[in-house]
Amino acid sequence: MNPRMFFTTFIATVFLFTGIAIAAEYQATSKAGDLEVMLTIDKNPPVVGKNNATIAIKDGSGQPVTDASVRLEFGMPAMPGMPAMNYKADAVLSDGIYKTPLTFSMAGPWFINTKILRNKKIVTAKFNVDVQ
Ligand SMILES: [Cu+2]
Q1: 20 pLDDT exceeds 60?
Q2: I need a surface site. Which of 55, 63, 122, 132 has the fewest CB within 10 A?
Q3: Contacts of the segment 33-37: beta carbons below 8 A, 24+ positions apart
Q4: What pLDDT, on the 0 to 100 scale, is given for residue 23?
Q5: What number is the average pLDDT over the span 68-76?
Q6: What angle do CA 128, 52, 62 make, to 5 degrees?
Q7: Is residue 67 scored above 80 in pLDDT?
Q8: Taking Cα atoms as reference points, which of 46, 27, 57, 35 lies closest to residue 102?
Q9: What does the radius of gyration of the chain's CA atoms come to, in whole angstroms?
């Protein structure tokens, strides 16, 4: 392999792996009041069992918000043979973003309501994921 071909192959490989790394995370953005909330889950699609979620929050001027309390209320509405399921997880601030494990008990559509308490006000960012 000549150096030029090696270089081309190398670049192609880097792009391939970068693409896979991006696709391997679930990511969605939602508004909560004047806040912009980005939810990232380390698996795409999210899976039955343990997933790791991170929540990044920006205020109306695009500045990171790190003085909030963040709680995820997630679950499924009732369906045939299954009562409504509701769970809570308090996210912990680490390196400027909020983190928590999220455990889904079954496949299907789940809601994730991200409750943000800041300045004595609670706002909610709503997400929906399809767990596999
Ligand atoms: Cu269900």
Answers
A1: no
A2: 63
A3: 33/121, 33/123, 34/59, 34/60, 35/59, 35/60, 35/65, 35/116, 35/118, 35/123, 35/125, 37/114, 37/116, 37/125
A4: 64
A5: 98
A6: 70
A7: yes
A8: 46
A9: 18
Which fold does the domain 26-131 belong to in CATH? Answer: Immunoglobulin-like (2.60.40)
Q: Tell me how far the alpha carbon of residue 33 lies from the centroid of ligand 1, in angstroms.
A: 29
For ligand 1, the distance from its centroid to the CA atom of residue 104, given in whole angstroms, is 10
Identity of the residue numbered 16: L
- Rounded Cα distance between 64 and 31, Å, is 14
Give the strands of the sheet with 26-32, arranged side by side: 26-32, 35-41, 49-58, 97-104, 85-94, 69-76, 108-118, 121-131
**Distance (Å, whole) CA 1 – CA 13:** 15
